[in-house]
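Hi support team,

I submitted a single chain yesterday and got back a structure, but I'm not sure I'm reading the token output correctly. Could someone confirm the output below corresponds to the sequence I sent? I've pasted both exactly as they appear in my results page.

Thanks,
R.
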Amino acid sequence: MATTTGEVLLNPVRGKARIEVLDILRGIAILGIFTMNLPFMAGPSELMLRDFRQIGWTPADRTAWSIIQIFWEGTQRGLLEFLFGAALMVLAAKAMKPDGPVAVADLYIRRALWLLLFGLVDVFLLLWPGDILHVYALAALFLFPFRHLRPRSLIPLGLFFATGIGIFATVQYVERVSLVASVQTAQQHQAQGKPLDKADKAALEAWKKKLDRFKIDKETQKKAEEESKARSGSYVGYATYLWGAWLSFAAKGAIYMGVAEAFCAMLIGIALWKMGIIQGQRSTRFYLLMALVTYGLGLGARALGVMEMLAFQPIPKTIWITGEYARIAVSLGHVALVNLLVRFRVSHAILKPFVAAGQVAFSLYFLEQIIGINILFSPAAMGLKGVFGWATLWGWATGIALLLLLMANIWTRYFISGPMEWAWRSLAYWRRQPFRRMPE
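Hi R., thanks for writing in. Yes, this is the structure output for that exact sequence:
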């Protein structure tokens, strides 16, 4: 039975009414996010946050890390953020007029608030400090009034976060260029045997401090030892450490930054829907050109950024300025590529299994935390610990993702949605939703 307000019928979108390419994008994103999360689940995260070489740096690790940074880092979030914006337009299709039904807005807010609660469950019960659900829920709460804006307004607003980051980073870049020049001058004076003036000494001291950031200092080593103890001890100690990690991230403003990033990308998602891009309404030529342009800009900026980071020197880095723009560009490239590939028989057949993953993405996300945090690396379960390396963890994440993909396709043969999707929809619509798939 459906909820009605006047002539408005409110029901979850199911079956043939679902847009296949959106499910494919969602499935790819939710399985791919495990690649990014697994290293932090495995640890040692304290050392990794200081120097990403600390979890392994063989030639294979270096290659794996570089590929992930160029092609995937942050773009799974980008896809999910775009999809949140598109989902708003699907939900609000019957509320586009200024006097549209209050019921749709009410439903939208309930969905966001329940998602916020599920996100906190992910943090405090499943012990995942890197949860994105509560961040996206908070961002989504501010999104509804922007549904009437045109793409020409949504896109500049959507780039506001990237622009703000870019402006701040430009100041840092200029300061670092100046420091490098001062250090070179001081080093020349040293080589020539000239006495160093006050400016030379200050530049060399500042440079030394920045070089020291690549070293494991006493504070980081202490935190790493506490992490190792938590991962090897009791479940209570393990849980307490992970709760503390989330609280530490929150205290440093990570939630505010995450909400700002997500909200702006969601605005771009609304624009993509209104322009018919994300749901596959544009021409093959359009998607080809879009992929070439966005990948060209985004991957190029990221490849340069990786080369800068691999120098392991405190040099000025262009990726400080271009990083968020590049993340958005590569995410848009993924949207274009998937919409292009679904138009051809062989590539469509390859992508087809991701439809099921997209339909149960919420449940898969929780299952990833159960596998990683609560089974593989929990001292109460398998308790794996050690330095595994980027390549090994990438291989594990890929293998687990393929297993989850298989499970999703089997599950959706018998059930309409995953258990988390069912719970979320039932709570949002205030009534029990269908769960088992009935014979047609």
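A quick pointer for reading it: The longest strand covers residues 3-5. Let us know if anything else looks off.

Best,
Support desk
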